Amino acid sequence: MRVENIQRTTPVATTDKIEAEKKIDSKTEAKDTQTTNETPAAVYEKTEQKETSHVYDKNTILKLKRQSQEAHSQLIRLVQEMLKRQGKSLELLGADEIVEVDETARLEAKALIGPDGPLGAEAVSQRLVDFAIAISGGDKSKAETLRSAIEQGFKEAEKILGELPDVSKETYKLTMEKLDAWAKEE
Known about the structure:
Elements: E1 2-3, H1 15-36, H2 58-85, E2 99-100, H3 103-113, H4 121-136, H5 143-161, H6 166-184
Antiparallel strand pairs: 1-2
Helix pairs in contact: 2-3, 2-4, 4-6, 5-6
């Protein structure tokens, strides 16, 4: 198995950068207002907390986020160790460089996406459905909206990959079955 055309992913902005930019903007704004002695065009006044009909399950979302991050970290570790065994690193990898997937990495990846693995169809489909239920606040009237959003996510992944791998197709199938079962429960 060969991996070609690896593209690094980096965040567009870090939270530190965003916070720094906000501080700079607010300082600049304050100076501008002081120098012109004009009143601001708009004033923000905090409104009272209003009750909404939509309440999501924050604890479940945080738990699912941690699980997802742990699984992602395992995958990153696997790739970094594979590259290290080949005397390479992600930072120094050329855009056109071809990386051979060794047997150790292949077996580890197989375990990650296997039936009991954290990136397997069963585990990922369960996290997807749990997340959908949590963000809907358990409101079954939102099932069709959730279903559409999940379908769109899989379609977008397919556009990027060309064709979904078997584990992703199985994940989609299980996700839809679980979502339908939840929507139909009394």
